[in-house]
Amino acid sequence: MNASAELLKELRIDRSAAPPPRGPSSSRRWLWVVIGLVLALLLALVIGALVSRKPTITVETAPVVAMAQAGGGSTAVLDASGYVVARRMATVSAKITGKVREVMIEEGMRVEEGQVMATLDPIDANAQRSLNAAQLDAARSQIGGLQAQLRQTEAEASRLQSLVGQQLVSRSQYDQAVAARDSLRAQLLTAQHNAKVAQDALSIADLGVDNNIVRAPFSGVVTAKAAQPGEIVSPLSAGGGFTRTGIGTIVDMDSLEVEVEVGEAFIGRVQPKMAVETVLNAYPDWKIPGEVIAIIPTADRGKATVKVRVALGVKDPRIVPEMGVRVSFLEKAAPVGAEAPKGVRIPATAIVQRDGKPSAFVLQADDKVQLQALETGATLGKDKQVLSGLSAGQTVVINPPEELKDGDKVTLAGADK
């Protein structure tokens, strides 16, 4: 009995004793293992994405354009830029130095040939004219007096001549009368010459008065007003900033033409009377027909260009001097009924050599490019004729980089703006 009781005591739990030390539980160890596996998997995914990711290439594109139809137009063989210039343009000034009294022009005003543009203060010119007019009157009055004296001496000499024949007067008396007559004739001739000089001086004085009036040398439009009443104007620069050299600038709008500079390497494509098409930078949708007037027979060795004059086939108020233009030199248009040109045209910079063949990268709907082999034709200025491999309406990549490959995804230039 006592033995059984002892055995039961041994089976009782002693709650007063300290618990044995405990190590990390198996569940916590499994939690850390799972977290480590997840982090390793995420790291592997990120590294794989970075390794497999290829950056997109930014490219510029251009449309594929159909060739011009037969009889429907001409093909540009060369493009050049230039400016609208006026062949007749003048800064109008007075012939003399003087003070401006009145200015009768404004910018944009139409003036006719001979129309008064301004007047100067004529006080000095009027005074000089009055002096010359008085000198002319004096010379003319002197002529009158000498003519009266001459008539008297001529009559006296005539009477003495008859008396000398009758020996009623001495010969010396008659000679004195003849000498007096001849002297008066010489004085009268001198007076008449002086009167002519005075008349010429008066005419010059009239010109001096007229020089105070500034007139338009030809019909045109005023593009600049350079002087105001009270300012001093002079045909020559007097130095400083207080003397004007002109009243205003007028331009003959009927003399407008275009000047373009063509590179020496391409000037052989341009011929006199060649048809052109001019587009103003201000009106890009307006195509103005024209033709080549002349090729200036000199080159600019600094820029390696030759200047070409181009006529405008349209006179329009929208065309003004110094406007920037783009000129397309056109080859002769095909006659009506001729066979239509084949293929399409694309910028020559879109064509690359791949595997020894001319090719182009065609932009697809998903912004990926497809390398397309081409059969090319004639060179059309900055463009190239493509006989097969492309169709009108497609889009090609221009200036494709060397690293661009078939199937690459691209970003269009300016798409992120």
Automatic annotation (TrEMBL):
Residues 136-163 form a coiled coil. Residues 344-411 form the YknX-like C-terminal permuted SH3-like domain. Residues 258-330 form the CusB-like beta-barrel domain. Residues 88-234 form the Multidrug resistance protein MdtA-like barrel-sandwich hybrid domain. One of its GO terms (molecular function) is efflux transmembrane transporter activity. GO terms for cellular component: efflux pump complex. The chain crosses the membrane at residues 30-51. InterPro entries: Beta-barrel_RND_2, MdtA-like_BSH, RND_pump_MFP, YknX-like_C. Keywords: Coiled coil, Membrane, Transmembrane, Transmembrane helix. The keyword Membrane applies. It comes from the Bacteria. Pfam families: Beta-barrel_RND_2 (PF25954), BSH_RND (PF25917), YknX_C (PF25989). The keyword Heme does not apply. Belongs to the membrane fusion protein (MFP) (TC 8.A.1) family. This is Acriflavin resistance protein. It comes from Stenotrophomonas humi.
